[in-house]
UniProtKB/TrEMBL annotation:
Protein name as it appears in the record: Ectoine/hydroxyectoine ABC transporter substrate-binding protein EhuB
Keywords: Signal
One of the protein's GO biological processes: ectoine transmembrane transport
Species of the source: Hypericibacter terrae
Entry-linked Pfam families: SBP_bac_3
SMART domains: PBPb
Length: 286
């Protein structure tokens, strides 16, 4: 009886304490930045799209975006980055669901995405190209070529901007082959399921250099009369204000510096791919 009574009183006291802690908890809750600094690491989402963000055969996370992220995070007291491989179309949902704390995938900054996440300032600017069969036997140049020939099929990556460019060019959904990742795009062109695959010029050049029977078209910078020089940045949850602000403050000083150019040149970036627009301009659609 005595033991049981003590147990009940102890439980009641603990419960009361938990209620009290629960009531004051939010005032002292750690932010994502505070937690990452305390733990010494942060999780980042990437889509295995070279040269933007990808894993090497030995599992190392690298690419333009992860390397920039690692450099900036080290400057704000977060020494380690853990990658979470995610299909491109699931990156923003994964970020919002807390599977990781930022996106390091070279993601284009667009007005639609700006409504969902907070972007850093852009880290690069780049145009488009197509992956085609070696020799380009069908003479495919750009989206206009696909739109003018209803027999042609264009492969695009789910969640990427290229499907929008296709729509703007007058290409119906019936001519699109929507796939989850780069390797699927390559296989579709190699197998003849698609006549071309669309991505940024650097991605296409990288895919062409690593796969047999395919090549890149010359890069192009306009679609349907509008510039498609895309600018990529790092995506954060909108509520992670202190993390975004600390990151962005260092990023602004870093972009275009000798340290930055040396870091991204091995991935095909460099002085010719520096951003020319701000995030505010890109989010407003200017």
């Amino acid at each position: 009886m005595t033991s049981s009574a003590i147990s009940r009183r102890t439980l009641m006291g603990l419960t009361a304490g938990l209620v009290t802690l629960a009531g004051i908890g939010p005032a002292f809750a750690e932010t994502t930045l505070e937690r990452a600094r305390r733990e010494g690491f942060i999780r980042v989402g990437f889509a295995n799209e070279a040269p933007y963000g990808f894993a090497t055969p030995d599992g190392k996370l690298t690419g333009e975006s992860p390397e920039v992220v690692k450099a900036i995070l080290a400057k704000i007291g977060i020494p380690q980055v853990d990658g979470v491989l995610t299909e491109f179309g699931s990156l923003i949902p994964g970020l919002q669901a807390g599977r990781f704390d930022l996106i390091a995938a070279g993601m284009f900054i667009t007005p639609k995405r700006c409504k969902q996440v907070q972007f850093s300032e852009p880290t690069y600017g780049i145009g488009q190209a197509f992956l085609v069969t070696k020799g380009n036997p069908k003479g495919i140049k750009d989206y206009g070529t696909i739109a003018s020939n209803k027999a042609l099929k264009l492969a695009v990556m789910a969640g990427a901007v290229e499907a929008g460019y296709a729509k703007d060019s007058g290409i119906p959904e019936s001519q699109l082959v929507i796939l989850p990742d780069q390797s699927s795009l390559v296989k579709a062109v190699q197998a003849g399921r698609a006549d071309a695959a669309a991505l940024t010029a650097l991605s296409i050049a990288d895919m062409a250099s690593k796969n047999d029977g395919v090549e890149s078209t010359p890069p192009f910078g306009t679609v349907a009369g509008k510039s498609v020089v895309g600018h990529g940045g790092i995506a954060f949850r909108k509520e992670d204000t202190d993390l975004y602000e600390a990151f962005n403050a260092e990023l602004k000083k870093f972009i275009g510096s000798p340290e930055h150019i040396a870091l991204v040149t091995p991935f095909g970036f460099g002085k010719n791919f520096l951003p020319t627009l701000t995030t505010a301009e890109l989010c407003s659609g200017e």
